[in-house]
Amino acid sequence: MAGGVTFDPAEFEAFKQATGAPAAPASGGFDPAEFAAYKAAQTGTDTGREAGAMNAAARGFVDGIPIAGPYILGGIDRADAALRSYQGGTDYGSEVAKAQRYGADVKAAHPYANTAGEVAGGIAGTAPLIAAAPAAFGAGTGGLLARSVYSAASGSGLGAADAAVRSNGDLNAAGRGAVVGGTLGAAAPAAGAALGAGIRNFYEMIGSRMGPSSGFSPAATRVLAEDAANSGGVPQIRSRMGVLGSDAMLLDASPSFQGQAQGLAVRPETREAVTAPIVSRAAGMTDRLATDINGAFGPAVSPQTATSAFASARQIPNQAIGDAVRGAGPIDTTDVLANLADRLRTAEGPQRAALMQARGMLMTEHPLTGAAIPQTSAENLQNAKVALSGMMEHGAESLGVPRGSVAQREGGLGATVADLNRALRDQVPGYGAANDVSSALARRMEAVEAGSQLLRGGQGATPPADLAARLAGMSQGERDAMAVGTRGAIDQAVGTRRNDLTAMQNLLQGEGGWNTANLAQVHGQAPVDRIVGAVNREAAFDQANRRIVEGSQTAQRTQAADRVAPRTTLGNDIGGTVAGAIGGPAGWLAAQGGRVARFGINAAGQAADIARNRQLADAVTLTQGDRLNTLLNAIEARGAMQQRAAALGNTAGRGAQAVLLSQSERARPYFPAALPAFSR
Asked: Which is nearest to 285 in space by CA: 245, 312, 254?
């Protein structure tokens, strides 16, 4: 006895031979570790069972790998035998036989562990093949029938090859493996889909109860989550609503949510809840646009008011000019007249007529002889300069000088006016400083006028490149004056309703986008972007109003309404009529009883549908804030959970396919033995 176990040397030696241990020494001694294993085997201790089960499972795992498993397991046994032979100096063939006997014994002692290992090995060996070529194994995206055909073909090939390997090339066994593998392969896609759907639905059911609350019922949340998925996800919804601003509603986030609102606007139980907020928002369009326009461009000042203000300010330097020329001595215009004579030699048409008029203004009669002599009065020369400048701007039809024909400052008349101005500045004290101030104010008046005409269409439209060249030569004061003119032009363009949406759209889109580009040059890109965004925002709001409240897109409204229509209660009595015709009064009464039962069920369902619709109406009209954030957070969490559920279901489905495709050899004994294809 040893620890309650009777020691039998012969039995112990047989045990050692079964486990592959070397023979006992001739002296009859034994290794305590070997004897402990012997006792565990005799008494059935947990340690012995666990070690044997683990070995059975491990060997089953390797052996279960399709086709390659037997080769790998044989290689392991031979490697172990080689090591034992080397360490113990024993025969290699005997060690191989011992290893094989051990494998057979442990498999027989622990069949369940071995089978579990074989199934796991089959999955581990087949799953990578399915992942690498899903279409070939029926795990692609086609229809179930097509996937079943592909899976049957690949299962048949896999089963035949695996059976051939395990039967040492027996063609009958390979044929039977092909039939079983094809049969299991044909069923694999359907089984995988069923298991995957079950796992996915179970995970979603658990996850929906553990996720964050949306603030709405599960039924309403489910519909809203579908719309969110159709909208590109929660980040896309948040981005779109961020662009539209604080007055945006969830229904503005995507066509899917807007379609939901259209359907709810048709239903009597939700019509007012959906349309009232949209109508209220539409009424504030003018005020919102006014806020954006004033915020971007500043308060409006009419071009006339700005021009009058500059003209009034100009009176001060003009008065100083008048005082300076009245007190000045004789002015020498010799150079002015010489340059004028040179220009007259080549001038033609309106330019010659204008220069002849200029020469007449620069000459006067001698008081005694009446001969023509140069004008020397600074005051008269100043008046001549003003008159000639006016001719450049307005022309003189009576003299044959049409408007605009001599407007170029670098032309003959323009050069003569510049010469005259230079003579006065050089010879009249105080004239230059006062003239600079007056000219600057005059240029601002011109800039206001140019700004008021900047947004004109047609042939009078200003290309952005031309405006850029003009702005490059302007002072900051002139730029500001032009901005005043364009601000006034915006008011003029939109008419009496100065913030009319259509007028603003036409203004910004006119001339192929020239107006938008020109406004950005005058006012800056950021203010123009704000206005463009405001116009796009109000256009989106107006579109929602027309589609949902005013009833455009009737087909879409009807389709969306059908989606959320509450279920009916009693319905028609066709079933009762048919039942009465077939079964008489008793059949009719039975049908009516069923109809009443359906009424109770449908009435409760109808109330739930109406409650869901009212919550949907509340949700689609939510503006940005805590309630909308709570809803979107819950939808986002739900979406992430569904993705995890889909991934888990897909993995489970692939695993089910891998099981069926890899277990033809183990499944064959369970097929009908009467069929020749499945007999051993």
From this structure: 245
